[in-house]
From TrEMBL:
<feature type="region of interest" description="Disordered">
    <location>
        <begin position="412"/>
        <end position="433"/>
    </location>
</feature>
<dbReference type="InterPro" id="IPR013078">
    <property type="entry name" value="His_Pase_superF_clade-1"/>
</dbReference>
<keyword id="KW-0378">Hydrolase</keyword>
<protein>
    <recommendedName>
        <fullName>fructose-2,6-bisphosphate 2-phosphatase</fullName>
        <ecNumber>3.1.3.46</ecNumber>
    </recommendedName>
</protein>
<dbReference type="Pfam" id="PF00300">
    <property type="entry name" value="His_Phos_1"/>
</dbReference>
<dbReference type="InterPro" id="IPR027417">
    <property type="entry name" value="P-loop_NTPase"/>
</dbReference>
<comment type="similarity">
    <text>In the C-terminal section; belongs to the phosphoglycerate mutase family.</text>
</comment>
<dbReference type="GO" id="GO:0005829">
    <property type="term" value="C:cytosol"/>
</dbReference>
<dbReference type="GO" id="GO:0005524">
    <property type="term" value="F:ATP binding"/>
</dbReference>
<feature type="binding site">
    <location>
        <position position="279"/>
    </location>
    <ligand>
        <name>substrate</name>
    </ligand>
</feature>
<dbReference type="InterPro" id="IPR003094">
    <property type="entry name" value="6Pfruct_kin"/>
</dbReference>
<dbReference type="Pfam" id="PF01591">
    <property type="entry name" value="6PF2K"/>
</dbReference>
<feature type="domain" description="6-phosphofructo-2-kinase">
    <location>
        <begin position="10"/>
        <end position="220"/>
    </location>
</feature>
<dbReference type="GO" id="GO:0006003">
    <property type="term" value="P:fructose 2,6-bisphosphate metabolic process"/>
</dbReference>
<dbReference type="InterPro" id="IPR013079">
    <property type="entry name" value="6Phosfructo_kin"/>
</dbReference>
<dbReference type="GO" id="GO:0003873">
    <property type="term" value="F:6-phosphofructo-2-kinase activity"/>
</dbReference>
<dbReference type="GO" id="GO:0004331">
    <property type="term" value="F:fructose-2,6-bisphosphate 2-phosphatase activity"/>
</dbReference>
C-alpha cells in the first residue's frame, strides 16, 4: 500500500505543542507545519486554544490574561481541555497523525499537565518553542497580529496594539522557557527565528522532519515567480513528454519574458531555476539573472506513454486512461511517475525555497501544479486538475496568514494543453489568447 514516509514501527500519533509568548510567530509556524505535512500526505490539523477561548470571551481585555484573574484562568484551562478533547476525537475518527496544539503554554507546570494528558491517550507530545527577544521582529509581528487577529476585529489599531502589549506583559510575568529541567521532553527551541536552534530528545522520524522544516523557515518578505515553459513543438501536436524545442510562439514568449519579469521584480536580486529539459532552459535563456537547472524540476515522467498523445494513450491503454481520470494524483504511468511521486521528489525544492528569498521557477505543468499546491494549500483531489495557462507569469507572495497571488499574462497566444476530467482525449488545437 501507500508509504506515507513514516516508518511502520513508530507510534503514528504526534502532538506538536506550541510554546512561546504572543507575537512570536507561533500561529504562523503552526499553519506552515500543517500545510507542509498535508502536502506530503501526512494527515495533520491544528487546534487553536485561542479560538475555543473566544467562544466564551470574544474580546477579552488584557486583564483577562492576568494569572491572578481566577475567572480568566479557569476559562483558559477549560478552553485548552476542549481543544484537547476535540483533538483526541480527531485522532480516533480521522486517522490523524500529527495534531498541533496552538497555545501559549507558558509554564513548566502547564507543559507537564499537557504531557501527561497526551501520553495517557497514547499521543506523543513534542514541544516547539519560538523564543525571541529581538524587539524589531516582535514589533513587526504585533503589527501583523493587530491587523489580522479576530480578537481585535473592528477596534482602533493603536488601541489594539497597546492592549496586545499589555497582554504580552501579563504572560511575561509567568513565562518559563524550555530548559534542562525538562530534559526528558522532546522539544525544539527556535531562538530569534532560527538564528539558534536547540533540539532535545528527538525520538522519531516525523519529529526530525518537523525540526528540519522549522529550521529552514524565515520571515523576510520575498516573492516566488512561477512560469511554465513557452509552447513547445510537442504541445502543437499534443504529444506528452520528450525533450522538444520551443515552437515559434514559445520562442516569442521567451523573448518577452525578461520584460515581464523586470516589471514584476524591479531591482530585487533574483535567481532563476529551470529543469534540465530544453524547453525550460530555452524559455529562461534571455533572463539576465543567475540560473540553476534542477533534475527534480523535470516534467512528470509519462513512462511508456512518453511521446504519445492522449488520443493514442486512450486507444492503446484504455484502462490506464480511465484509471488516471479516476485518481489522477495516485495514478502512476507504466514505467513512469504519479503526482505523488513528483511531490516526493520536489520536497528538497520546497525546503530550499523556504530558505531562499526571490526565486523564479520555469518548469512544467505537473511540477508547477505541485509547487503551487504547496504554497496555495490546494488539496490533492484538485491540484492535478488545476488550470495553469501557458505564457503567463504567476507571482506568489507568502504573507503571515495567506499567500498573495498575481497573474501576469504575456498576451502571446498558445494552444490550450488543458484536458478536463472525463472529457474526450482529442487534443485541443484551439488557440487561447
Ligand atoms: C536575539 O536577537 C537580539 C536582537 O538582535 C539579540 O540582542 C540577542 O542576543 C539574540 N539572542 C540570541 C540568543 O541569539
Ligand atoms: C506540452 O509539451 C511538453 C513537451 O514538449 C509536454 O511535456 C507537456 O506535457 C505538454 N503539455 C500538455 C499539457 O500537453
Ligand atoms: C497582492 O499583490 C499585488 C501585486 O503586488 C498588490 O497590488 C496587492 O495589494 C497585494 N494584496 C495584498 C492583500 O497584499
Ligand atoms: C496560557 C495558556 O493558554 N496556556 C495553556 C497551555 O496549555 C495548557 C494545556 O493545553 C493549558 O492548560 C494552558 O491554559
Amino acid at each position: 500500500m501507500t508509504n506515507y514516509g513514516i516508518t511502520p514501527t513508530e507510534t503514528p500519533r504526534l502532538c506538536v505543542v506550541m510554546v512561546g509568548l504572543p507575537a512570536r510567530g507561533k500561529s504562523l509556524i503552526t499553519q506552515k507545519i500543517v500545510r507542509y505535512l498535508s502536502w506530503l500526505s501526512i494527515k495533520a490539523r491544528s487546534f487553536n486554544v485561542g479560538s475555543y477561548r473566544r467562544l466564551q470571551e470574544a474580546h477579552p481585555s488584557a486583564d483577562f490574561f492576568d494569572v491572578h484573574n481566577a475567572q480568566g484562568e479557569r476559562m483558559r484551562r477549560q478552553a485548552a481541555e476542549l481543544a484537547v478533547k476535540d483533538m483526541l476525537e480527531w485522532f480516533e475518527t480521522s486517522d490523524g497523525v500529527v495534531a498541533i496544539l496552538d497555545a501559549t503554554n507558558s509554564t513548566k507546570a502547564r507543559r507537564s499537565w499537557i504531557k501527561e494528558l497526551l501520553q495517557g491517550h497514547g499521543v506523543e507530545p513534542f514541544f516547539v518553542e519560538s523564543w525571541c527577544n529581538d524587539k524589531e521582529l516582535i514589533w513587526n509581528n504585533i503589527m501583523d497580529v493587530k491587523t489580522t487577529s479576530p480578537d481585535y476585529v473592528g477596534q482602533d489599531p493603536e488601541e489594539a496594539a497597546k492592549d496586545f502589549m499589555a497582554r504580552i506583559r501579563k504572560y511575561e510575568e509567568v513565562y518559563e522557557t524550555l530548559d534542562e529541567t525538562e530534559a526528558e521532553s522532546s522539544y525544539v527551541k527556535i531562538i530569534n527565528v532560527s538564528s539558534q536552534v536547540v533540539i532535545n530528545k528527538i525520538r522519531s522520524y516525523l519529529q526530525s522532519r518537523i525540526v528540519y522544516y522549522v529550521m529552514n523557515l524565515h520571515i523576510k518578505r520575498r516573492c516566488i515567480w512561477l512560469s511554465r515553459h513557452g509552447e513547445s513543438e510537442y504541445n502543437l501536436t499534443g504529444k506528452l513528454g520528450g525533450d522538444a524545442n520551443l515552437s515559434p510562439r514559445g520562442e516569442m514568449y521567451a523573448r518577452k519574458l525578461p520584460e515581464l519579469v523586470k516589471e514584476a521584480v524591479g531591482d530585487r536580486p533574483l535567481t532563476v531555476w529551470t529543469s534540465t529539459l530544453r524547453r525550460t532552459q530555452q524559455t529562461a535563456r534571455f533572463l539576465p539573472y543567475p540560473k540553476l537547472a534542477w533534475k527534480a524540476l523535470d516534467e512528470l515522467d509519462a513512462g511508456v506513454c512518453d511521446g504519445m498523445t492522449y488520443e493514442e494513450i486512450e486507444q492503446k491503454y484504455p484502462e490506464d486512461f480511465a484509471a488516471r481520470d479516476k485518481d489522477k494524483y495516485e495514478y502512476r504511468y507504466r514505467g513512469g511517475e504519479s503526482y505523488r511521486d513528483v511531490v516526493t521528489r520536489l520536497e528538497p525544492i520546497i525546503m530550499e525555497l523556504e530558505r531562499q528569498e526571490n526565486i523564479m521557477i520555469v518548469t512544467h505543468q505537473a511540477v508547477l501544479r505541485c509547487i503551487y499546491a504547496y504554497f496555495m494549500n490546494v488539496p490533492q483531489d484538485r491540484s492535478p486538475w488545476m488550470v495553469v495557462p501557458l505564457h503567463t507569469l504567476i507571482q506568489l507572495e507568502p504573507r503571515p496568514y495567506s499567500t498573495n497571488e498575481t497573474r501576469v499574462p504575456a498576451n502571446i497566444p498558445a494552444v490550450s494543453t488543458y484536458r478536463e476530467k472525463g472529457t474526450s482525449s482529442k487534443h485541443s488545437t484551439e488557440v487561447v489568447e
